[in-house]
Amino acid sequence: MREVIGTNNRILEIDLTAKKFLESSVNTKDRDMYWGGKGLALKLLYDRLEPGVDPLGEKNIFIIETGVLTGTGAPCSGRFEVVSKSPLTGIINCSSCGGPFGMAVKTSGWDAIILTGRAASPVYLIIDYDGVQFKPADTLWGKDTAAAEAEIIKEGSGAMVIGPAGENLVRFANIRSGHRFVGRGGMGAVLGAKNIKGIVAKGKEIKIVPANKKLFFATNKKFLKYINRNFVTSGTYRQFGTNSATIACNTAGTIPVRNFTCGSHGEVHKISGEAMAERFKTKWDTCRPCAILCGHKGTIDGKEIHVPEYETVHLLGSNLEIFDSVIISEWNELCSQYGMDTISVGGTLGWAMEATEKGLIKTNLKFGSPDSVAEMIENIALGRGIGKDLGQGSRLAAKKYGGEDFAMHVKGLELPGYEPRGAIGHGLGYATANRGGCHLSSYIIAIEVLYDMADPYNPRWKHYMVKFMEDFFAALNSMHICQFTAYAVMFEPPLIKMSPFPVIKILMQNSAPLAMNLMDVSLYSELWHAVLGKTYLPYLGMRKFLKMGERVHVLERHMNTREGISKKDDTLPLRLLTEGRKCDAVERTVPLEKMLKKYYKLRGFDSNGVPQRRTLKRLGIEIKE
Amino acid sequence: MDASYNYEFLAHPKIISGKCSLENIPAELAGYDAQKPLVIARKSIVQQEGITKKFVRAFADSMVVLGAVYDEVENYAGISKAREAAFLFTERGCDSLIALGSGAAVDLAKAVNVLVSEKADNLSAFYEGKAIDDILKPLLFIPAGRTNGRESSNTMIIDNREIKSDFLYPEVIVIDPRMTSVCRSDDVAESAAIAFAQSFAVFAAKKHNPMTAAVAHPALSYLSQCLEQGLKRPKNKSTSIALTNASVVASIAYDNTRPGTTNLLAEELARATDLSVGVVTGMLLPSVIELMGKKEFPVSDELLLAIGGLDVYAAVAPQDRARKGLETALKLARVLLSFLPASLKELNVQKYIFNEVARTVAQKCDDIFSENDFAEILEAAWGRRREY
User: Fold this and answer.
1) Which residue out of A357, A360, A396 would a mutagenesis test of the B interface target, given it has the greatest number of B Cβ atoms within 10 Å?
2) How many helices (H) and strands (E) does chain B have?
3) Cα(A50)–Cα(A559) distance, rounded to whole angstroms?
4) If pLDDT is split at 50, 70 and 90, which confidence band does A539 have?
5) Which residues of B touch A399 (CB under 8 A)?
6) Residues of chain A contacting residue B118, judged by C-beta atoms under 8 Å apart
7) Fewer CB in a 10 Å sphere around the end CB: N or C, chain A?
8) What is the per-residue DSSP string for B287-322?
9) Of A52, A362, A574, the CB nearest to B351
10) Residue B387 pLDDT
11) pLDDT, tens digit, for every residue of B210-234?
12) What pLDDT is recorded for position B1?
């Protein structure tokens, strides 16, 4: 087996129209500025994609990028990033996945794969060290994700496939890799439009060796220690998965109920992580390599199922007023088979139920009733009846049928399972997230609710918290390493760890910049430098890391502004801005405008939300006219 | 028979325009035997200093009691808000409606009117074609702020669905300078763009209708006389009342003519991009007029008369009047454009949607323009440079 020190630095550029490929390399400057994963993928896209192209057209470009840590054995690093223009939002979409495909690509000798053009007929691709082979996918076309993956995985060690939803260009179709998904933004439809049923990478052809082994293993050991002693990463997530947050969120009023009309419900305990663990007798079933082990599988009547994640549980559950974990799991399996994002499916079904109730559309969907939901999921995936319009996402469905005031999306991407009227900073995070309604862009709810470190109703310093976390997560996704590790690393520095919790809380509320800068996330930076053998200066680690994250975030924003995004799009659904919730003692809405103004100033954007030239220049982003 | 006598024209609303016209409202309501109106107002209008005070003062010393003021209206008119307001209407025992503001406030008032008059819970039957077959409650409309050109018409757009009925016309439109002068320059530009496009459509229609032309004439005259001043000084009472008059009469004229190219194109593009219809209309107008000039489209001579005035009209040879009319219209459109973004490119509108927009508009419009022409107009508006 070949040994590669550091990373491959090889990019496989595939022209699907001409059925040709070429090899290029990552230039050193880009590697230093954008690291890998999300950052480098965005830079590659920025250099190649002209603004204004049709996301489902031939000119759209689809990039798969691994991280520098992928293949090194670093904890939680078995991930890959997919970047393209989204058919759901019409803007740039980055989506991360913990499936085996990333590792297979990396150990096939490639850091990135770029797909351009469109295949004349359905094909699947086989990637190995020498390049790519095009294989007809006529017999695979129409098969569900599990069957299709089972078929092509025989030719490699990691695969990604689309299901019938991707083939039918459902705008929130996802991509399956193992039992994980490139979930958000309709990346499955982009592949479907390119006539690609799947890609399989041979893998295991090369071995990645860190350049500075001593530093790498020492840091790795420290990292594992942090993960194993944190109560979230080694406790609640490991035991109950992401759905362990349910009870805390219900208490805080941040669960979406009845298409985001309420934030808590008396029956939510029935679908909590704890209840599901007991009911399904769950076992770990995770990404590889993983030290957190948040993914779980279990059994229903002897049949093995993947236990749904928090977002799925709440979008297909509480949001539709369904509190039966078996039914939710069945719908989750159905969406997986067809290859659809459960968040968008749940958000769109929530809209459809309310639209039906208000006489805007005619369906049999009804809040609290599971009847017709499975049938509608099938109709969406197969483009039948009104399912075809629902498959365009809640934004386009609402444009056609009305009900825009209760279509719960931002920039076209349906909102995940947190109700921001119970945590307003999270609302700002939704509004400013580059890809649309995304909880992972800043995940301020962790500070506001899960860790209870800041008043969730007070807008003070929320702009700072959002910016800090956005930069941090953009950097993590450029490493590319699981975001959940942040819980373990952020609170380790002695000053934070030893300070009494009320002191941290007061500090966070009154001087967030000081409190947040007490955190030390330079461990990540240390790992990256260790793999590539670059000189590492510990005191510069965190600054450099966050600045790189800022560069990645602003580059994505800059690319989106070229696609027409501005302040008008950095908003929330009207319901969250104007309607108080009847379930609250005091009716609240999200005071977005106030926070947004401060956020733009802090980010170096103009009043219309466009990055100023001097901001781009400061971050070293090349301006293309 | 002379072809100019073959036409249809319906102008329902009564217009009361001028200083202190608000004070006429109690008498107008009394004419409909109404004494307790529900006021539906745009939040942005009500929030402006003094507006509510001025409005309420108009009812002093009258028998009219305001049932309630529903000021939860934002940019979007949907059934949820309509139901809320209808509930308020019934609870408070109201007998009439006043829409204060424009756009969504008026659409919502019309929807509330249908819900309470037809005793319906939603509008699904009307979306499916059920006709509104009886007289509704009296609805008064007081223009304030940015208009969308539909307020004075027989149309309402609720939840993005269009419902048309002659019963949807407001009974009375009250244009008072205290209410019209609350705009900003961009509001004026957007309202004027729509009014311009609507009245232009009347003169560009294939079939001449003397009545629509007569109504659209003052709209274009007001625009040509007051637009520049109105854009520079939006709070000036005399220009704002003139431009609001232009909007109202243009809307009435447009309601009696076939949909215009600019309007259809702008509505479709705005729907696809989430941009304001007014902005898009203003940006498309020069490209539409230029293409009409290039294709020597036979517009009515009266276009020149309305924009240029009698002296200019008389000074141009009859065979040149149509061409000259387009030239003056283009000049006016460029004045408007100087207060709007110069091009669709400047707004980063994605070009790939142009084909779909052009296709949709071509299906709706059997004008002389083809799908390619629509695409050409969009391309021209995309690449336009600011040169004036």
Assistant:
1) A360
2) 17, 8
3) 10
4) low
5) 160, 271
6) none
7) C
8) HHHHHHHHTT----THHHHHHH-HHHHHHS-GGGHH
9) A52
10) 62
11) 999 999 999 999 999 999 999 999 9
12) 45
Q: What is the mean pLDDT of residues B66-75?
A: 91
Residue pLDDT, tens place only, A210-241: 999 999 999 999 999 999 999 899 999 999 99
Please give the structure tokens belonging to residue B107.
């659409």
**Gap between the Cα atoms of B215 and B209, Å rounded:** 10
User: Of the candidates A402, A564, A569, which has its C-beta nearest B349's C-beta?
Assistant: A564
- pLDDT at A540 (0 to 100): 64
DSSP codes joined into one string, A253-269:
T-S-BTTTTBS--TTGG
Backbone angles phi, psi at B56, to 5 degrees: -65, -35
Interface membership of A406 toward B (CB under 8 Å) = yes
Tell me: pLDDT of B143 over 70.
Answer: yes
Q: Give B271's contacts in chain A (Cβ within 8 Å).
A: 399
Which positions 177-236 of A are in contact with B (Cβ < 8 Å)?
none
Residue A5: strand, helix, or coil: strand
Q: What 8-state DSSP symbol labels residue A115? A: E
Cα–Cα separations (whole angstroms), residue A190 to A123, A162, A269, A508, A523 = 14, 10, 38, 42, 36
User: What are the structural domains, with CATH classification, of chain B?
Assistant: 14-180 (3.40.50.1970), 185-383 (1.20.1090.10)
Substitution target from A54, A557, A624 for chain B, most B beta carbons within 10 A: A54
Of all residues in chain B, the percent with pLDDT exceeding 70 is 98
Check whether B4 has a pLDDT greater than 80. no
Q: How far is CA A540 from CA A490, A512, A520, A621, B48, in A?
A: 16, 21, 11, 21, 51
Average of per-residue pLDDT values in chain A:
95
Question: Which of B160, B186, B268, B354 is the mutation pick for testing A, counting most A CBs within 10 A?
Answer: B160
Q: Which residue is associated with the tokens 């590539």?
A: A532
**How close, in Å, is residue A450 to chain B by CA atoms?**
33
Band the pLDDT of A122: cuts 50, 70, 90.
Answer: very high
> What is the tens place of the pLDDT at every residue in A163-174?
999 999 999 999
Identify which of B379, B374, B343 has the alpha carbon closest to the alpha carbon of residue B357: B374
Q: Which of residues 80-119 of B touch A (CB under 8 A)?
A: 80-81, 83
Distance from CA of B220 to the nearest CA of A (A): 32
Exposure of A248 by Cβ count < 10 A (0-12 exposed, 13-18 middle, 19+ buried)?
A: middle
Q: Is the preceding peptide bond at B170 cis, omega within 30 degrees of 0?
A: no
User: In order of start, what are the domains of chain A with their CATH numbers?
Assistant: 2-209 (3.60.9.10), 254-399 (1.10.569.10), 420-618 (1.10.599.10)
**C-alpha gyration radius of chain B:** 21
| Token output for A536 | 């590492």
- Please state the pTM of the whole predicted model: 0.93
Over residues A89-99, the mean pLDDT reads 97
In angstroms, the CA A338 to CA A72 distance is 33
A401 contact residues in B (CB cutoff 8 A) = 159-161
Closest alpha carbon within chain B to A558: B348
Averaged over A469-477, what is the pLDDT? 96
Please tell me the least confidently modeled range out of A64-73, A539-548, B357-366: A539-548
Are A563 and B350 in contact (CB < 8 Å)?
A: yes
Q: How buried is residue B85: exposed, middle or buried, by Cβ count under 10 Å (0-12/13-18/19+)?
A: buried
Which residue does chain A place closest to B72, by CA atoms? Answer: A578
Neighbours of B41 (CB within 10 A): 25
> Would you call B271 an interface residue with chain A, using a CB distance cutoff of 8 Å?
yes
